[in-house]
Fold this protein.
Amino acid sequence: MIRMKRNESKLQGAQTQCPAADQRRSSRPKLSAAIVAVMTTAALVLSPFAVTGQALAAPAAAAKPQAALAPFVNPKLQNYKQVEYAIKHNLVQPLNTVVKKDGYQLTVNGFIADKYELIILFTAQADSKLAFTSQAPQGHEMQLTDVITGKVISGKKMNDAAVQGVSPAKQNHVMHGIAKIPLSSPLTTPPQKVAAEFRLTSLTGNELKQLEAMEAQMMAEAKKAYQANPKDKTSKTSPELLKKYNALKAKVKKSPPLKAVFEIDPKAWEQESLTLTPEETVDIAGHQIKVNMELTPFTTITTLSSDEVLFTDKEFNEKFKKDYSLSLLVMSGNGEYKPQEGISSYTYSDHKLTIVSENYFLLDKPQSLRLDFKNLKENKVTQQMIIDLTNP
């Protein structure tokens, strides 16, 4: 049994900033684990301690808020599993902040905080003749501001929020939405009171029906063209239909600013984090790489570092991507390893590679984690590591 240096810290006060990015790219979820050296496919077992989150409500008192949050656990919403996880572990601050303006009503239903991510749950309502829709380049927007300091936390220039929503059947004028704010670095001073200003987009109900009919027609034309000639990748939408479609999309209009001001429960910032710093190094392409990892309820950050200038070296990176592609699997109560899903971003600098991954498994008390280094072309595990989570 090899033990690693461990540290548990709460998400409050000043935090270490993420490394500045020399290069950045996004990818499918493949990495989110502490890495230690394993020269063969034999597994090395490590034992960090378990971590639990700071609940915002006692289980008995949480039943009613959980029922109110049920519309946000909807498979049509991209982040519904994340919200479901937060509700399960009482990480959601229930809210009922209502703002009305020019026939629109917006209710902030909940707030979720992570060191590297903020989430706002909301419900919007408009005139029954309108239908909420997001049509690029016109989409729902939100800006989050610290009311006390006036500092913008999320806006178009930084930490831009991804806002999505879904409407109940035959109620397109109603929308249950999620605004997710990725933080490029932890907040130095967690805000006590914030203003969330939404601009939501819509068409009339008839316009949305026409738009959906055109999209169905375009899909049918594309399918027919593909079946006739699978090698032809060019668009087969008729110029006339495309012109009508773009003209209809141009009719999308934005709501007036809907600003909801609410206070944040200090407990929302008290989610635990786990830092793992193994003494061992991993041999990657003949170079000894140091590793450390930070786990929060929603995020896994893995940092590979070297005294050498490696991570901006073209030859090293090509070898790394070819033979050391990384994936994280988690073993739960059923004894089977399950791959983790979520978006990852990679930041390269001369001496470091930092991977920020959206994972939410830590509070489910998994039995162990497994990190596979693979040559994807050959589907061959070149190195493997198992982290035992059952022995403190």
